[in-house]
Amino acid sequence: MEKLIIFDTTLRDGEQAPGFSMTVEEKVKMALQLEKLGVDVIEAGFAAASEGDFEAVKRVAEEVKNAIVCSLARALQSDIDKAGEALLAAENRRIHTFIATSPIHMQYKLKMTPDEVVERAVAAVKYALKYTDDVEFSAEDAFRSEREFLYRVFEAVIKAGAKTINVPDTVGYAIPEEFGQLIKDIKNNVPNIDKAVISVHCHNDLGLAVANSLAAVKNGARQVHATVNGIGERAGNAAVEEVVMAIKVRHDYFKGIYTTINTKEIYKTSRLLCRITGSFVQPNKAIVGDNAFAHEAGIHQHGILAHRETYEIMRAEDVGVPKSKIVLGKHSGRHAFKTRLQELGYTNLSDAEIDSLFLKFKKLADKKKEVFDEDIEALILEEFSFF
Ligand code: KIV
Ligand code: ZN
Fold first, then answer.
1. Is the confidence at residue 355, as pLDDT, over 70?
2. Is any atom of ligand 1 closer than 6 Å to the C-beta of 333?
3. Distance between CA 87 and CA 352 in Å, rounded?
4. Which residues contact 309 (CB under 8 A, 6 or more apart)?
5. In sequence order, what are the beta bridge partners of 73?
6. What start and end residues bound the annotated signal peptide (predicted)?
7. Residue 306: exposed, middle, or buried by beta-carbon count in 10 A (0-12, 13-18, 19+)?
8. Rounded to whole angstroms, how far apart are CA atoms 15 and 236?
9. Measured from the CB, is residue 7 less than 6 Å from ligand 1?
10. Could you identify the atom of ligand 1 that is nearest to the CA of residue 142?
11. From ligand 2's centre to the CA of 240, what distance in Å?
12. Cβ contact 127:77 at 8 Å
């Protein structure tokens, strides 16, 4: 059995997305819920980014007791000092320092040579050790970096003391097979790789962040960066609920890899983030969307009522959704309609009465997106004037 470390970056990369910024109090509330969810690492912010973010990292560090609290820092002494200072009160602290390693970032953004980048990365890791022995290093834009150079950077930072090396697909450009191969190649080509945990950080520009993260796990990554509801820069980051449930539901495929996430807290965590940010997930969002455990089509409803696993690969209760929903609409069948009548207490209706009500229900359903219990009560009132 091998544990997959869940590094939650909702409060850092998630918060960086337009419209998702949170106040200090909101971050603390969210961090406490993330702790209930059981994430291993909470990246609380980027302490050097602003006074507010410094304060947020500090407050989260004071309040969280079990998870490791982490701050992001560029590979600069001033950033690392801010991160270290903000994390002082944490029971368990991590500094996550990064520098870009792709040709395009080194040339146009950093204006640094590859040698200078290696030197800066090593110096940053060594300096961060002043505050904690738990230092993570990210090679920003790793996926678009030259392989040999990437191996060289990782070898150097591990030698300098980094305990985790993170491989970001910063612009969400990778395809799962390629990303999995990259992780395998890092494992096979970085000489001292067994001294560090391989981590991944995938963006969702092509809608592949979760798939890429899972391909990485299959090939040796043992930490995944993710965010609640998949929020994050541009199209977002890998969604924590999707990564965790894929590992759990497909344990046959991931063979012995597990997380210690309390999955029953998933829905609550997702909803809390929605309320705090005022931004709701789309109904068909995997795991936490309103329709994730809802069934409208008659054939599906019939199957579900006969045996849940005909159309459900996990239980709603396992992610904290009270129950799967049978939604009555124009695609619903007589079986589901009769079941709903019984749930509403109409248990003595004859087959002929149900048939007649079902015809009226179908007519109504053609005019409405969803037929609610109140609509059914109204149909019954109309049909049986003695009520
Ligand atoms: O996307 C990215 O590369 C990042 C790093 C700072 C890890 O967010
Ligand atoms: Zn990112």
1. yes
2. no
3. 70
4. none
5. 97
6. none
7. exposed
8. 10
9. no
10. 3
11. 14
12. yes
Q: Using an 8 Å Cβ cutoff, are 241 and 248 in contact? A: no
| Sign of CA pseudo-dihedral 105, 110, 115, 119 | negative
- What is the pairing mode between strands 68-74 and 325-326? unpaired
304's CB contacts (< 8 A; 6+ apart) are 295, 310, 311, 312, 324, 326
| Residue 192, marked binder | no
| Proximal ligand: closest to the CA of 72 | 1
Question: Bridge partners of 166?
Answer: 138, 199
CB 102 within 8 A of CB 74: no
**pLDDT tens digits for 230-268?**
999 999 999 999 999 999 999 999 999 999 999 999 999
- Cα-based distances in Å from 169 to 130, 140, 242: 29, 8, 18
Q: What is the pLDDT of residue 376?
A: 95
Q: Residue 12: CB within 6 Å of ligand 1?
A: no
Closest to 124 in 3D by CA, of 84, 152, 92: 84
What is the rounded distance in angstroms from the CA atom of residue 224 to the CA atom of residue 238? 9
Beta strands in the chain (DSSP E): 2-3, 5-8, 41-45, 68-74, 93-100, 135-140, 164-169, 197-202, 223-226, 257-258, 294-295, 325-326
Decide whether any atom of ligand 1 lies within 6 Å of the 361 Cβ: no
CA 226, distance to chain mean position in Å, is: 4
**219/253 Cα distance (integer angstroms):** 12
pTM reported for the whole predicted model = 0.94
**Cα separation of 312 and 316, whole Å?**
9
Assign 189 a pLDDT band (cuts: 50, 70, 90): very high
Q: Apex CA 100: angle with CA 99 and CA 103, to 5°? A: 150
In the block, residue with structure tokens 């106040």: 23
- From 53, 70, 72, give the residue whose CB has the most ligand 1 atoms within 8 Å, as the site to mutate: 72
Amino acid letter, residue 198: I
Supply the DSSP string of 21-63, one letter for each residue. Answer: ---HHHHHHHHHHHHHHT-SEEEEE-TTT-HHHHHHHHHHHHH
